[in-house]
Write a structure and sequence with these properties.
Strand order of the largest sheet: 4-3-7-6-5
CATH topology of the largest domain: Beta-Lactamase
Radius of gyration: 53 Å
Helix content: 40-55%
Low-confidence stretches: 110-118
């Protein structure tokens, strides 16, 4: 199966790591609190400007009538308003006490009441926009859509020259300062502040100062543009780091997965599997992380599988070889039996056939036991096994009813009841029986087999000693091989399958222990007999 250029795990890592900055940026598009602070600041500035204009108008544009009552002069007020405020600062409208408009900073009136035309200058030549300016303009365009969910009064231009349309002007005419935030047709904001024009504590009119909310939108857009620029840098850095992280994870995993996929096709042959494992399974043990542990585990597992397949192949070859011997003997005996007429010779050949059949039965039984043993040991539950009871039972099995005869098996050390190992009692008894039978077959009839036990609180050693001829030094390890047979002189051939010690070793190793063979020697170096030592983990 062709692997995609970017794995699903890589996409997941990228998505998870990129989600946080994306959500952060998305949240800043709705910077309501920051916008409210900008609006409050703009209102404060606008109110200060409106009060300055109001004070100037009250001082310079107020006149007294014949009854000494102050009022506002439209001409003086209009000239003053036009001089004090320009379009950049906002729009100022002056209303008298009756809320009739007296002046408007955006209406320039000549002596004869005609509007003065303002000629627009030609547009400046286009210039190259930077990234931030492009982003600011983009967010300026988006601001009305972000603000669409908010409810602001809609601003309607007053066609009549009266301030009654604006509630804040009415409040200002009553002596109160008022403010209002409107939304225009294009979605942008318009801020308005109305302050009273007072002279000698008498309200002569009201000033309405309005200013569009472009500074607010510009401030928001600047913040959002800065955030976007930071986000782009952080996002790119996050992608690079995430991709590096995913590469260090997914690339080794992909190599391991590809190597593991090739194993089943070669699992039937140890040689092919060995070549495949060394060639394809990467060694990541230097990583010092979970992937290194996984690589080490896979290589160890594959090596164990190779060893198991090799052992199975050797076992099959050994079984085939061992079965051929009695089969060859059987064939020879049967062929000879057909030609021999002497009854004595026929009985001898029939005896050989019976012995060969018994030998085949023994081989098949022991081979079946050996092949099932490891699976049985892996499934069986280990239980505490008391050595005192186990060895006492063993001694009872080999006791003789004739008390005048020396014992065949003898315990040479006391065994406390608390000495225990974890294991399967029946299998441990099988090992002890096998070792005892083997020792008795080599020992003289009047010499018992001695068993002793040593405990160092961590390991328990069970020692089986005999007084036989000992074991050749070059065979101390080989005697545990399958089908190895070294029998006493005079014993009839074929009475043993050669699997007893091999099965014993398999059982002990399945219990986490070891079994070793050695020779007991006298001070003069003479061999006094063989010694088998079983070492098992002690149960606390």
């Amino acid at each position: 199966m062709k692997r995609p250029r970017i794995s699903a795990l890589t996409w997941r890592i990228l998505a998870v790591n990129a989600l946080a900055p994306v959500l952060l940026v998305a949240s800043f598009f709705y910077v309501g609190d920051y916008e409210e602070r900008l609006i409050a600041n703009e209102f404060a500035l606008l109110q200060s400007e409106a009060k300055l204009v109001s004070m100037a108008v009250a001082e310079s544009a107020a006149v007294l009538d014949y009854e000494e009552n102050p009022s506002l002069s439209a001409d003086l007020a209009a000239n003053l308003v036009r001089r004090m405020v320009d379009d950049k600062q906002g729009r100022v409208r002056l209303f008298d006490a009756d809320l009739t408009q007296l002046a408007d900073s955006r209406t320039l009136v000549g002596k004869r009441g005609q509007d003065i035309q303002i000629e627009q200058l030609s547009a400046l030549p286009p210039h190259t926009h930077g990234l931030k300016e492009i982003l600011v303009n983009f967010f300026d365009w988006l601001q009305p859509y972000f603000r669409a969910t908010r409810e602001y009064p809609h601003y309607v231009e007053n066609a009549a020259d009266t301030g009654r349309q604006y509630p804040i002007v009415t409040e200002a005419a009553g002596g109160e300062t008022a403010k209002q935030l409107w939304q225009m047709d294009d979605g942008k904001l318009l801020l308005g502040v109305a302050v009273p024009v007072q002279r000698y504590k008498k309200v002569l009119g009201a000033i309405l100062l309005t200013k569009d909310g472009s500074p607010i939108d510009k401030g928001l857009s600047n913040v959002q543009a800065d955030i976007i620029q930071i986000f782009v840098a952080v996002f790119c850095f996050t992608l690079l780091v995430s991709y590096y992280l995913s590469y260090t994870i997914t690339e080794p995993l992909s190599r391991l997965a590809a190597a593991v996929r090739d194993i089943p096709a070669s699992a039937g042959n140890a040689i092919t599997l060995g070549r495949l494992s060394h060639r394809t399974i990467p060694d990541l043990s230097m990583r010092q992380d979970e992937l290194g542990e996984l690589s080490t585990a896979l290589r160890s597992t594959t090596q164990a599988l190779i060893q198991r397949l090799t052992a199975i192949e050797h076992f099959a070859a050994d079984v085939a070889h061992e079965l051929k011997n009695p089969l060859t003997s059987l064939r020879s005996a049967v062929e000879t039996l057909q030609r021999v007429k002497d009854s004595g010779q026929q009985q001898k050949l029939l005896s050989i056939i019976r012995d060969d059949v018994d030998r085949l039965d023994r081989l098949i039984t022991d081979t079946s036991t050996a092949s099932r043993l490891e699976a049985e040991l892996s499934r069986a539950a280990m239980q505490p096994v008391g050595l005192s009871q186990l060895l006492t039972t063993l001694c009872d099995l080999y006791s003789t009813p004739d008390l005048s005869l020396p014992p065949r098996l003898q315990l040479t050390t006391p065994i406390p009841a608390e000495w225990q190992v974890s294991g399967i009692a029946s299998r441990l008894m099988q090992v002890l029986t096998n070792l005892t039978d083997n020792a008795l077959s080599f020992s003289p009839p009047h010499k018992p087999v001695c068993i002793s036990v040593q405990n160092d609180n961590k390991k328990i050693k069970i020692i089986v000693d005999d007084d036989g001829p000992g074991i050749p030094e070059n065979k101390l390890v080989a005697i545990f091989d399958r089908f190895y047979s070294e029998r006493p002189a005079g014993e009839e051939y074929g009475k043993h399958s050669g699997l007893g010690l091999s099965i014993s070793k398999q059982i002990i190793e399945g219990h986490g222990g070891t079994i070793e063979a050695s020779n007991r020697t006298a001070p003069d170096g003479k061999i006094e007999g063989a010694r088998f030592v079983m070492t098992l983990p002690a149960l606390s």
